[in-house]
Design a protein that fits this description.
The protein is of the alpha+beta class. It is built from four helices and seven strands; from the N terminus they run E-H-E-E-H-H-H-E-E-E-E. Strands 1, 2, 3, 4, 5, 6 and 7 form a seven-stranded antiparallel sheet that branches. The longest helix is centred in the last third of the chain and has 17 residues. The chain is globular, with a radius of gyration of 15 Å.
Length: 170
């Protein structure tokens, strides 16, 4: 892990203000697009599994692709590498983080929370829902809702994590 490096998420790329990030696991989704992604995942699982390169990308969720992130687990899920990042995340972070580790993108506390949620997704083979509180100097700057879903690999037994990152207006 790379917890000794400066994170990408330390400052807002637009305003330059320092950011504090806190993850919160939630019981239910409230964003319509997050619910749509979960419904698609459930449908795929019932009809033979949810697999990269077969079910993602797909015309059925083409409008959601810009919100999707694929996390590849490292050995024993001690960290995850951003294998694919949707345009919304790239825009929000101010750079493409594809190929980077979660521990390189977030400060240690939030990084560990996201790593734990991704690991739990794989361990339970089920969805995890979370909200991220991104706070600036005075208040929340953004509050994205996440849905983390286990996704198989077409020609390998590995399970990765598909994350939908959906933003509510403040």
């Amino acid at each position: 892990m790379s917890f000794d490096r400066a994170s990408v998420t330390r400052t807002d790329p637009v305003t330059g203000q320092p950011l504090r990030i806190q993850f919160e696991e939630i019981e239910t989704l409230s964003h319509a697009d997050a619910e749509a992604l979960l419904a698609y995942w459930s449908h795929c699982r019932k009809s033979g599994g949810f697999v990269m390169s077969r079910d993602v990308p797909s015309k059925a969720i083409a409008r959601l692709m810009k919100y999707l992130v694929v996390l590849e687990p490292l050995t024993d899920c001690v960290d995850f590498k951003y294998h694919l990042t949707g345009m919304v995340l790239t825009e929000r972070l101010g750079r493409d983080v594809t190929g980077m580790l979660i521990s390189e993108v977030f400060e240690p506390g939030p990084a560990q929370s996201l790593i734990d949620a991704a690991r739990k997704t794989i361990d339970t083979d089920g969805p995890i829902f979370a909200r991220i509180h991104i706070r600036g100097v005075l208040s929340d700057v953004r509050k994205p809702e996440l849905v983390l879903l286990p996704i198989g690999q077409l020609h390998a037994p590995d399970t990765w994590v598909l994350v939908g990152v959906f933003y509510h207006p403040l």
